[in-house]
Amino acid sequence: MTGSAADNGGDGGRGHPVVRFQSFLHGGTSSLLSALPTLLVFPVYKTVFRQQIHNTPVHQAVRQLYKEGPVKLYRGVAPPLLMRTLNGTLLFGLQDTLLRQLSCSPPNAISASASSALAGFGAGLVEAAVFTPLERVQNVLQNGQNDRQLPTLKSVLARLRSQGRVRGYYRAFLPVTARNTLGSSLYFGLKGPVCDVVAGQGLPPLASSFVSGTVTSMAISLTLYPLSVLVANMQAQAGGEMKGVRACWQALWRSRQRSVVLLYRGGSLVILRSCITWGITTAIYDRQQKRSN
Fold first, then answer.
1. In the CATH hierarchy, which top-level class contains the domain 6-292?
2. Residues 110 and 190 sit within 8 Å (Cβ to Cβ)
3. Measuring CA to CA, which residue among 62, 67, 66 is closest to residue 50?
4. In the predicted model, what is the mean pLDDT of residues 40-65?
């Protein structure tokens, strides 16, 4: 999918409900098929998470996980697997639906890339509203400091429920929204043009989509990585003082000794994860969309 109107079903199929449903189905399928790599790289993700909240070098984070043992290594894996599948379904489906609505505007009113980016922004907004509670649960589960007080998923849910919606499940909603809307907007706005450039070098469509998803996601992950670190630190604790976004950012910046290098600790592993998951997801989704059009 390059982001043009033709690639999104043409004029004749824009309003057809089956066409809209296919986008949701293809998004969910592509994300589900990339769930296996998500399982494989989950220890990498958890290592990054420990670096984000404890500000430790990679070898210390790995040693910490090793001491906890293989059973706890995959504690918290269920939410990201569930999020991965549902996220793809909602994100790709909503973006395509919004894009079809925007494509009904007067010709040349807005470029194809800008339309894709704007539709991605709207999809990212809904995504944040739906998935912030799942991300909150995931981050609490992955924080080893919560293992004794909150040993099970049920205990985590009970604790968050007792704190109310804003302090509990929707903790860090504003930075999550900023990250998701910007990330989705950039992803859908850039992946089409990047795919066209790569395809112009002679690569087949599947390889072009994979490279496009990989490069685009890599750039977005690095750009928005500080927001991900902020979200992880705000959501990892299930109790104690609940500071606002500004106070949490200032505390995080001080804890990183006001160093951008320390703030980006674990960023290289984020690139690896993005290359695997979003490259595969983009390639599968684009292939399914082109077959159905």
1. mainly alpha
2. no
3. 62
4. 82
